[in-house]
C-alpha cells in the first residue's frame, strides 16, 4: 500500500480532494472525495469527528455547510493508553489508471483501488520481473472533470474503437509531445503532438481525435472512486499530469467576528442554542410572529434537559442574542463563484469591526488615533488600528481546472467534493484555523476622492484596464472593477509588507494582505489588513503590532515610500510597465520583483494590479502619486 505524509494545511491546498499527489514510492494518487473521510480506522472503529469540528458562523452561512473540519492527523496506538481516533488517514486512489512498462513499453489499465507496485504481465510471461509506471498524461476539461487520456480512442481515431489489441507507448528521444508515439498491435499508430493545445471554446484533442466528429469530456470524477462517464460535453484537452493548471483550489477565508455581544458567561448558552436547529428555528418563528422569547415555552417544548441549569432570564437573554446572530446571518451573501461584489459585501462586516476597539478571546483590536502619529500619516490615513490577536479560518470550497478563476455556483463546487452531499446540518468542508496579529490601515476618504478625481490618475489606471482585458480574453478571467483606489491600496500593502519584513524579522512569506476596497457611492472604503498568522493556538509574538505604534510606523512608511521612488530595475521597470505591462498576465505597471512583488501566497491577487506610480508618482509626473511629497518631490 502506498503512503505519503502530508501536512494538515496542505490537505486544504494544494492537495485537497481532486488533486494529485506523488507518494515517496513514485505512485501518483488522487485525493478522494469528502464522503470517504472520517469513516473508520484500520480496525473498523468509527471515527469521533467532534474533536475536528471548526465553527465559523459567517463562512458556514456563505458556503452553505453546517460546520468545518480539520483534516485528520495520523496517531499511532500506544500500549496502555487510550488514544482517540487512532490511525485515521485520508484515502487516496491510484490515478492515472493507465500504466506502461519502461522495458517493453506495453500499456495496461489498472483499477483505481489497486495498491502496491504493479507487475508487467507481458514481461512476466517471458520470465522477466518488471514493474509498471504510470503514464505522464491525463485529460481534463474546464468544468473540473479529470480522466485518463483516451489512448485507445486516440490511436484508432475513433470515439468507439472496436479493436482491443495491445497498445504500447514509445518515446523517440525528442523533447516535444510529437516524439511520444502510441501504437496498437493492429498496426495503428499516432503521436501525441498538440494534444495540450486549445483555442477559444475548443481544443485540439476534441477536434482531432476522430475526423469529422467532436470528442468532448465524459464528465469523469475519479476522486469519487469511479471512472464511469457522466454528462458534460465540455472540450477535452490533454495535459501532463504534473502541469500547474491541473488543479486550482478555491480557498475561502474569514476573520472570525464575535457572533454576539453577550457576556462570556452567556456565550456557552448562545452557542448551544445556535447549534440546535429546531430551537433556533422556533425562536426565529416567534420573532416573525411578534412573540417575545419565552423560556417556559422552550422548556415545555422538549428542551428542559438542555436548559435546566440556566435561569429563565438567562435563557431569554441568550435567545435574543442568538436571534440577532441568525437575523444578521441572513445578510451574509451566498458564495457563487468568483463574484467580486459578494466578496466585497462579505468583507464589510470585518472592516466595520476592525475599525473599532474590541477585546474577545478570538479578536482583540486597539484603536489608534491618527493625530498621535507624525509626518504624512494624519493627513493620509483615517484609521490605524492595532490588531493584537485575530483568528482566521481557511476553507477549501471547491476547485477548478485549466483556468484559475471559474464562475460555477456553490452547489457545483460541493458536487466536486462530495459524491452525495449530505443534508445541510451534516454537510462540512475541510478547513483549519490560524492565529496571529496585524495592522489595519484605512486611507482618508476625503483625500482619496480628491486624488481619484485627477484626469491623469484615471488615464494612468486605464492602461492597466486595457492590459487586463487582453489577459481576460486569453485566460477566461472574470470581470474586474480596477479602480485607482484598488491599485493604490494593493500596491501600498505590498510596499509596507516588504519593508516590515526587514523591520520586524518576519520572513517574506509570513506577512499577508486582506483588502477592503469599495467604490460604492453609499459605502466607499479603502483599507487593508496586513497580518501574520500561525497554526498554533498562541499565534505570533507581537512584533508586527509593535511596528504599528506611533514612533515606529512613521519610519516604516517613510522607508517604504522612499524605496518605491527608485527600483533597482529602473528605468526599465517604470517604462516597460507603462508601455506594455509586466508581471503575471502583464497586469502590472511599475512593479517587479525588485520593488513591489511579494511571495505569491502572501498576495490575494497573485501579484497583479500593482503600480508604484500611483503611490509616489513618476519622474515625468510627480503629482500622479497619492504620496507625492514622499516621492520625487522630496
Low-pLDDT regions: none
Termini separation: 66 Å
Count of distinct strands: 23
Q: What is the radius of gyration? A: 28 Å
Mean pLDDT: 88
* Total of DSSP H or I helical runs spanning 4+ residues: 18
Q: What is the overall silhouette? A: globular
Summing up helix and strand content along with how strands pair, one would put the structural category as alpha+beta
Percent strand equals 15-25%
What's the helical proportion of residues?
25-40%
How would a crystallographer describe the biggest sheet?
9 strands, mixed
Domain MrfA-like Zn-binding: 492-595
Pfam families: MZB (PF09369)
Protein name: DUF1998 domain-containing protein
Biased composition (Acidic residues): 334-343
Task: Give a topology summary.
Elements: E1 20-22, E2 28-31, E3 53-54, H1 57-63, E4 67-69, E5 92-94, E6 98-100, E7 107-109, H2 121-125, E8 133-134, E9 137-140, E10 146-148, H3 151-156, E11 167-171, E12 180-184, E13 189-191, E14 198-199, E15 202-203, H4 204-208, E16 237-240, E17 248-255, H5 264-274, H6 277-288, H7 295-307, H8 312-329, H9 340-354, E18 358-359, E19 364-366, H10 377-380, E20 381-400, H11 410-417, E21 428-443, H12 445-452, H13 455-475, H14 484-504, E22 511-518, E23 525-534, H15 543-546, H16 553-565, H17 572-580, H18 613-616
Parallel strand pairs: 4-21
Antiparallel strand pairs: 1-2, 2-5, 3-4, 6-7, 6-8, 9-10, 9-16, 11-12, 12-13, 14-15, 17-20, 18-19, 19-20, 20-21, 21-23, 22-23
Give an overview in words.
Helices cover 29% and strands 19% of the residues. With 634 residues, the chain is α+β, with helices and mostly antiparallel strands. A hairpin with a 6-residue loop joins strand 6 and strand 7 (107-109). The longest helix has 21 residues, at 455-475. Residues 328-347 are annotated as: Disordered.
Amino acid at each position: 500500500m502506498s503512503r505519503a505524509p502530508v501536512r494538515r494545511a496542505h490537505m486544504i491546498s494544494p492537495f485537497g480532494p481532486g488533486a494529485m499527489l506523488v507518494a515517496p514510492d513514485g505512485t501518483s494518487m488522487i485525493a478522494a472525495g469528502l464522503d470517504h473521510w472520517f469513516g473508520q480506522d484500520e480496525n473498523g472503529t468509527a471515527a469521533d469527528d467532534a474533536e475536528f469540528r471548526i465553527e465559523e458562523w459567517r463562512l458556514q452561512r456563505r458556503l452553505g455547510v453546517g460546520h468545518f473540519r480539520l483534516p485528520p492527523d495520523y496517531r499511532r496506538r500506544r500500549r496502555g493508553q487510550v488514544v482517540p481516533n487512532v490511525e485515521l488517514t485520508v484515502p487516496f486512489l491510484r490515478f492515472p489508471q493507465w500504466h506502461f512498462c519502461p522495458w517493453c513499453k506495453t500499456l495496461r489499465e489498472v483499477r483505481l483501488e489497486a495498491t502496491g507496485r504493479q507487475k508487467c504481465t507481458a514481461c512476466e510471461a517471458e520470465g522477466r520481473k518488471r514493474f509498471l509506471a504510470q503514464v505522464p498524461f491525463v485529460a481534463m476539461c474546464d468544468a473540473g472533470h479529470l480522466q485518463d487520456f483516451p489512448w485507445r480512442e486516440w490511436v484508432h481515431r475513433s470515439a468507439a474503437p472496436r479493436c482491443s489489441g495491445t497498445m504500447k507507448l514509445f518515446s523517440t528521444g525528442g523533447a516535444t509531445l510529437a516524439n511520444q508515439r502510441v501504437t496498437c498491435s493492429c498496426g495503428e499508430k499516432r503521436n501525441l503532438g498538440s494534444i495540450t493545445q486549445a483555442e477559444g471554446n475548443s481544443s485540439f484533442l476534441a477536434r482531432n481525435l476522430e475526423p469529422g466528429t467532436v470528442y468532448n469530456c465524459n464528465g469523469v470524477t475519479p476522486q469519487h472512486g469511479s471512472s464511469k462517464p457522466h454528462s458534460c460535453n465540455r472540450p477535452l484537452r490533454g495535459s501532463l499530469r504534473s502541469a500547474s493548471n491541473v488543479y486550482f483550489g478555491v480557498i475561502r477565508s474569514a476573520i472570525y467576528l464575535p457572533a454576539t455581544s453577550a457576556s462570556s458567561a452567556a456565550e456557552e448558552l448562545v452557542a448551544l442554542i445556535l447549534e440546535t436547529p429546531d430551537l433556533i428555528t422556533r425562536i426565529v418563528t416567534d420573532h416573525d410572529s411578534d412573540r417575545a422569547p419565552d423560556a417556559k415555552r422552550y422548556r415545555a417544548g422538549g428542551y428542559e434537559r438542555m436548559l435546566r441549569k440556566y435561569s429563565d432570564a438567562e435563557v431569554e437573554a441568550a435567545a435574543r442574542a442568538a436571534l440577532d446572530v441568525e437575523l444578521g446571518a441572513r445578510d451574509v451573501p451566498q458564495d457563487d463563484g468568483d463574484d467580486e461584489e459578494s466578496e466585497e459585501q462579505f468583507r464589510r462586516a470585518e472592516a466595520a469591526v476592525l475599525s473599532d476597539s474590541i477585546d474577545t478571546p478570538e479578536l482583540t483590536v486597539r484603536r489608534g488615533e491618527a493625530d498621535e502619529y507624525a509626518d504624512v500619516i494624519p493627513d493620509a490615513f483615517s484609521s490605524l488600528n492595532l490588531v493584537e490577536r485575530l483568528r482566521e479560518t481557511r476553507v477549501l470550497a471547491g476547485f477548478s481546472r485549466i483556468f484559475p478563476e471559474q464562475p460555477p455556483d456553490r452547489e457545483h463546487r460541493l458536487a466536486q467534493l462530495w459524491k452525495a452531499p449530505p443534508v445541510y446540518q451534516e454537510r462540512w468542508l475541510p478547513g483549519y484555523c490560524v492565529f496571529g496579529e496585524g495592522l489595519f490601515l484605512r486611507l482618508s476618504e476625503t483625500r482619496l476622492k480628491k486624488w481619484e478625481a485627477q484626469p491623469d490618475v484615471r488615464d494612468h489606471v486605464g492602461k492597466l484596464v486595457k492590459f487586463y482585458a487582453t489577459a481576460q480574453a486569453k485566460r477566461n478571467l472574470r470581470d474586474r472593477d480596477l479602480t485607482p483606489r484598488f491599485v493604490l491600496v494593493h500596491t501600498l500593502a505590498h510596499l509596507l509588507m516588504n519593508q516590515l519584513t526587514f523591520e520586524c524579522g518576519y520572513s517574506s512569506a509570513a506577512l499577508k494582505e486582506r483588502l477592503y476596497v469599495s467604490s460604492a457611492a453609499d459605502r466607499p472604503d479603502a483599507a487593508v489588513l496586513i497580518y501574520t498568522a500561525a497554526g498554533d493556538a498562541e499565534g505570533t509574538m507581537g512584533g508586527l503590532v509593535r511596528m504599528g505604534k506611533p514612533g515606529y510606523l512613521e519610519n516604516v512608511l517613510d522607508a517604504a515610500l522612499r524605496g518605491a521612488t527608485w527600483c533597482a530595475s529602473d528605468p526599465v521597470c517604470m517604462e516597460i510597465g507603462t508601455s506594455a505591462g509586466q508581471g503575471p498576465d502583464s497586469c502590472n505597471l511599475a512593479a517587479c520583483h525588485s520593488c513591489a512583488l511579494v511571495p505569491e501566497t502572501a498576495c490575494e491577487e497573485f501579484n497583479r494590479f500593482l503600480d508604484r506610480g500611483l503611490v509616489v508618482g513618476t519622474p515625468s509626473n510627480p503629482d500622479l502619486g497619492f504620496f507625492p511629497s514622499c516621492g520625487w518631490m522630496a
